[in-house]
Write a structure and sequence with these properties.
The protein is about 80% helix and about 0% strand. With about 100 residues, the protein is mainly α.
């Protein structure tokens, strides 16, 4: 996450915390209370999205590492479908 986005998210979190800490300044029917509630909802969605994105990036990294290790450990296998595709190329030469 970029540094600016991190600080912005942190700032929004502190604003939401302020609204939760001082409900006496913001009655439930006021615009301020509704704004704090909306910010809290947006922040929780943003946090969930950030966590999902980070876990996805980590999973991609782990899978790439596992594939690279498997390529080093196991030699390429000769699969029967390779013969079939070679045979089809003989019947349908590329022009």
């Amino acid at each position: 996450m970029e540094r600016r986005i991190f600080f912005t998210t942190d700032m929004i979190g502190r604003v939401v915390e302020f609204g939760a800490t001082h409900p006496e300044f913001f009655p439930k029917d006021s615009l301020g209370a509704q704004t704090f509630e909306g910010l809290g909802t947006a922040l929780s969605k943003l946090s969930g999205h950030a966590i999902a994105q980070l876990s996805e990036e980590n999973a991609v990294r782990i899978n790439a590492k596992a594939r690279a290790e498997a390529r080093e450990l196991y030699p390429p296998l000769h699969l029967p479908h390779d013969d079939h595709s070679r045979g089809l190329d003989e019947f349908n030469p590329r022009l």
